[in-house]
Amino acid sequence: MNRSSGLLSPRGQVLMFAALALLAFTAFPFAWMASTALKPSREIFVTPPTLWPTHVTLDNLSRLFAETRFLTYFRNSLTVSFATVGLTLLVSVPAAYGLTRFRFHGRETVAGLILFTYMFAPIMIIIPFYVAMRFLGLANTHLGLILAYTAFCLPFSLWLLRTFFQSIPLEIEEAARIDGSRLQAVIHVVLPLALPGVVATGTFTFILAWNDYIFARVLLSADEMKTLPVGIADLYNASVVDWGMIMAAGVLVIAPVAAVFVFIQRFLVAGWGSGGVKG
Amino acid sequence: MPSANSELFRLPEAAVGILLILPAILLLLSLTLYPVLYGVWISFFNKHSFFPQQTFIGFDNYISLLRDPEFWASVWRGTVYALSTIALQIILGVAAALLLNEVFPGRNILRGIVIFPYVVPTVVAVIIWKWLLNSQFGLVNYLIEKAGLVDQPISFMGKDWIMVSLIIVSVWQFFPFVVIGVLARLQTIPDELYDAAKVDGGNAWQRFVYVTLPQLKSVLFVIVLLRSIWMFTKFDTPWLMIQGGGAETYIRTLPIYTYMRTFAYYEAGLGSAMAVVMFLALAGAAVLYFRIWRREENL
Asked: Which of B25, B132, B236 is closest, CB to CB, to A213?
């Protein structure tokens, strides 16, 4: 197939037009959010709307910090997301290694079971989960939420890490074991090779925990415990919508996701192929 | 540490493997499988969501559910929502993937940007679109009015339009998933197939239908399956769209109704019954889907 069509050829023009349309559809809503976040209140409601703020201001941001608990929500989200990543990796890295390196009865059953859990959407497990968490006294705690996210992230992180460990040739590991113990071989040879997979898995887990709404909505009731998605949804519902402030909050919420995203973009396709994304 | 580990590694191979997996299995059993089974159990009880009292009522929750017109209405709304968003996601996703598989300046940056709506929190996607679609100050209303398409602003969050708005937001949010999957597959289609088609005199559309589409069949099979499971059970997007508007009954899909029964009417038993029905319906549909697919393959 000849893919070297010039920019000025009819084909090239159609391509560029389609690319611009796709760019506008996906990126413009974000640009509009950022633009609104930087506008003074008066300018937000003028007709015709200004594409770029004529008076750039950080008023919305300072109002967000001064009048709401945004920073508390932000800290809660960071705590819960990083704890989820830590716990998920702590449990799933050894398990994925075990699944790929040892033969034992029922190994394939375990792998199949992991895929089966894909059938359980949050809305299906949230009710019994909530009842159980109340019973255990973990409702309205961050620990309860971390456990919920870990349970939810485990199947795909196991699946994803399993494919990464499978791609590391056994021979390399065996060669390393001639010089030392198995543990040393794992630490010095296998884990460094699996690092991209571990990073990708950790990132997917982070994004899932950072973005979740339903578990946090159901499990947390005290305002000072809330994570960002719930906190922002409640800000939106509280009274007359302060659009400038809400948009500023939106920009700050996606900033860490954007940073992480740029970092892992090249892993995304690999991750998708093995079922790494969910939702 | 070293001594404990050398001890560990003297165990039979299989035992070490099982030990490594055990924490993950225990967590999965206690935090996923147990809640699911417990959910099935409480679906046979008249159970309050907060208080511990419960009375066994057998299949009464299921019977009252099947007699509840609102249940059937929510199933219908959920089906409309899921089918329309899945169809639009697939069309838009495949088209975008075909475009991003071509060579043009800025392609790699655009590949990254296109995926972005999929990784931001739903609450952000929803507030962005609520602002764009705002009936008084929204940019969309300004533009379509200026273009002369409408005489007065459309109330996108009103009862006539809320489902359309919800579908727009959902397609925008989830079509990147289709793009990622299809693009990955497109990159593995050998160029020779297209060259052969060109020799046979096929135009671009024919090449798409006879060369590209058959190659995409297997990846589309998985995408449709996953997107169906996730769109039929989608909670946060419709729920957050509902907030702050009076038209909530017009997008009350099954997951929303399940949530309301449990956390607004405090009927955990009935809510669980709805979750069980949702699961059974999805599992049944998945089995049927696999059967039909296999028959297609044989033809």
From this structure: B236
Is B95 a domain residue?
yes
Same domain membership, residue B72 and residue B38: no
Are B246 and B133 members of one domain? yes
Please report whether residue B55 resides in a domain: no
Query: What is the value of ipTM here, to two decimals?
Result: 0.88
> For chain A, what is the HEC assignment?
CCCCCCCCCHHHHHHHHHHHHHHHHHHHHHHHHHHHHCCCHHHHCCCCCCCCCCCCCCHHHHHHHHHCCHHHHHHHHHHHHHHHHHHHHHHHHHHHHHHHHCCCCCHHHHHHHHHHHHHCCHHHHHHHHHHHHHHCCCCCCHHHHHHHHHHHHHHHHHHHHHHHHHCCCHHHHHHHHHHCCHHHHHHHHHHHHHHHHHHHHHHHHHHHHHHCCHHHHHHCCCHHHCCHHHHHHHHHHHCCCCHHHHHHHHHHHHHHHHHHHHHHHHHHHHHHHCCCCCC
Q: How far is B297 from chain A (nearest CA, A)?
A: 22
B123 touches chain A (CB under 8 A): yes
CATH assignment at residue B87: 1.10.3720.10
Q: Are residues B9 and A228, on separate chains, in Cβ contact within 8 Å?
A: no
Collapsing DSSP to helix, strand or coil, B65 comes out as helix
Whether B104 is in a domain gets the answer yes
- A256 contact B CB<8A: no
User: Quick one: how far is CA B170 from the chain centroid?
Assistant: 9
Same domain, B184 and B255: yes
Q: Does A191 touch chain B (CB under 8 A)?
A: no
* Per-residue pLDDT tens over the stretch B185-199: 888 888 888 888 878
Residues B78 and B135 in one domain: yes
Instruction: Give the residue from A30, A88, A123 with the most B CB atoms within 10 Å of its CB, the best one to mutate.
Output: A123
DSSP state of B210: I
CATH topology of domain A62-273: MetI-like fold (1.10.3720)
Are B14 and A105 inside 8 Å of each other by CB?
Answer: yes
Task: Give chain B's domain count.
Answer: 2
Backbone angles phi, psi at A135, to 5 degrees: -60, -40
Q: Are strands B54-56 and B45-47 parallel, antiparallel or unpaired?
A: antiparallel
* Domain carrying residue B16: 2-42
On whether both B38 and B114 belong to a single domain, the answer is no
Domain borders along chain A are 62-273
CA distance B259 to B240: 13
Task: Give the residues of chain B that fall short of pLDDT 70.
Answer: 1-11, 244-246, 297-299
Q: Does the residue B173 lie in any domain?
A: yes
pLDDT of residue B132: 96
The pLDDT, as a whole number, for residue B231 is: 95
Enumerate the residues of chain A whose CB falls inside 8 A of the CB of residue B241.
none
> Are B175 and B290 part of one and the same domain?
yes
* Residues B134 and B186 grouped into a single domain: yes
Neighbouring C-beta atoms of residue B44, cutoff 10 Å:
19
Question: B285: number of CA atoms within 13 Å, CB side?
Answer: 14
Q: Do B183 and B228 lie in a common domain?
A: yes
